[in-house]
Design brief:
Shape: globular
Pfam family, one: DUF3669
CATH topology of the largest domain: Phosphorylase Kinase, domain 1
Helix content: 40-55%
Protein name: DUF3669 domain-containing protein
Order of helices and strands: HHEHHEEEHEHEHHEEHHEHEHHHH
Number of helices: 15
Strand order of the largest sheet: 1-10-9-7-8
Number of domains: 2
Distance between the termini: 55 Å
Radius of gyration: 22 Å
CATH superfamily of the largest domain: Phosphorylase Kinase, domain 1
Structural class: alpha+beta
């Protein structure tokens, strides 16, 4: 099968005209996405009992709380009607170096399409992501979520691409399809109520109407930047966007958000990724988004299904396609970790034979990442207490992971060495 997608740019402007039928399908996709968004917003407003006149800071303080829960069953029922489903195509909800991420409104999954020359990075993404997912599910009370891995689709999978190829029309890809694709559970965006409040609180007034109207701002996840404050004299952002919104520490304090809870959750997650999944966390993102309860009729992650070891032993780009059927019920604001395409996995033997090299590598990944982590050895609050919370949570989670039968006791010394090395590097500037 050799097909070429129509050429277009990623800003959303096709370079050639599209048919009226295709335009209707694209418009339907956007209308249904907006309708679902509005339904979520109404239910959330009702359940949290937030008045329309509430101040933006009050709205954000409540909606971004990890205890915020909303029912979504009624709104998703509309999208499961067969007459609607057949015409609803994919729309882009994000992109990065490795690929472009797409959703179909009303579905619980996203599809990450690999850019040319980044197919191996997408396969690495699958391996690290699956390792982290299994490590999280094997632990009790993990605060941070990571999306369930559902499928990996090869560009030579004619059956899948025959069924889905036309649904990518109008999605503004700048490279040809078919391509390698990783399918995972979707992190639902922050609800419209929260996005409106973010615009009211932080978007320059002259830009607010345009920002509210832009489709991409429905795809809002907020990066939890515990290690960054806005500068006092920073100018307003030239191109304000809610897609991958940078939520800085001073803003979280201003909104009375539970920053100590975030630090504890991230420290726990990082320890599990390091010492259970053996993943270095390089360039991962910690974001606030919503979690929906989802039922899968088939999945590769069930206990009797595909294991991390099986994926590791497969040739790159082995096709793992499965059908996904979902049933949305309720959703909760959560901290999520995502984007594993630049992560490396290390063998346990490295920690035993070359522990100093491993620690140096993990420390480098810690400092080269975006500022999700509070920096160690800070004299000022709340940075000092945030580092104490993160490091204590990291130490406790690592001790729990490394105390299980079969783990070499020599590894138990390494988490504290990692924390000490982070403090040393920070002190050296």
């Amino acid at each position: 099968m050799q097909r070429r997608h129509q050429s277009s740019d990623e800003s959303g402007t096709p370079s050639s005209a599209i048919s009226s039928t295709l335009r209707k399908d694209i418009d339907l996709t956007n209308r249904l996405s907006a309708l679902l968004d509005a339904a979520r917003n109404e239910e959330l407003t009702s359940e949290l009992q937030i008045l329309p006149s509430a101040e933006p800071h009050e709205v954000l303080s409540r909606v971004l709380s990890p205890s915020s829960v909303v029912s979504t069953a009624s709104s998703f029922a509309f999208f499961n009607k067969p007459q609607q489903a057949s015409s609803v195509g994919f729309r882009s909800v994000g992109f990065g170096q490795c690929g472009i991420v797409f959703e179909r409104p009303g579905r619980a999954y996203v599809v990450k399409i690999a850019r040319p020359s980044f197919e191996d990075a997408l396969w690495a993404d699958l391996q690290a992501h699956l390792s982290v997912y299994h490590a999280f599910t094997n632990q009790q009370s993990v605060e941070v979520r990571t999306p369930k891995v559902c499928s990996y689709v090869s560009k030579t999978n004619n059956e899948w691409w025959d069924a889905h190829f036309e649904l990518f029309h109008g999605s503004h890809l700048s490279f040809p399809l078919p391509a390698m694709a990783l399918i995972t559970k979707r992190i639902l965006p922050l609800p419209k109520l929260a996005r409106q409040a973010l615009i009211d609180a932080y978007c320059p007034a002259p830009s607010q109407l345009a920002v509210r109207a832009h489709d991409t701002n429905r795809d809002c996840l907020a990066r939890v930047y515990l290690g960054r404050r806005r500068g006092v004299n920073d100018p307003p952002p030239a191109n304000f966007t809610l897609r991958n919104f940078n939520l800085c520490l001073d803003q979280m304090i201003e909104l009375n958000l539970p920053i100590q809870h975030y630090a504890k959750a991230i420290g726990q997650a990082m320890a599990i990724m390091h010492w259970s999944a053996n993943v270095d966390c390089y360039d991962v993102e910690f974001v606030l988004g919503s979690e929906g309860e989802t039922t899968y009729t088939q999945e590769i992650c069930r206990s009797s299904g595909l294991s991390v070891e099986q994926v590791a032993s497969m040739p790159p780009h082995t096709d793992l396609d499965k059908r996904i059927r979902t049933n949305f019920r309720r959703r909760t604001t959560r901290v999520w970790v995502l984007d594993f395409n630049l992560c490396s996995k290390w063998e346990e033997q490295m920690g035993l034979e070359r522990p100093d090299d491993l620690i140096a590598h993990l420390v480098a990944a810690f400092f080269e990442n975006d500022p999700y982590y509070p920096r160690p050895s800070q004299d000022l609050e709340p940075g000092k207490s945030l580092w104490f919370t993160l490091s204590s949570s990291y130490r406790d989670a690592a001790a729990s992971v490394l105390s299980v039968p079969g783990k070499d006791p020599r590894l138990a010394l390494l988490p504290q060495k990692f924390l000490d090395a982070c403090v040393l590097r920070q002190s050296e500037g």
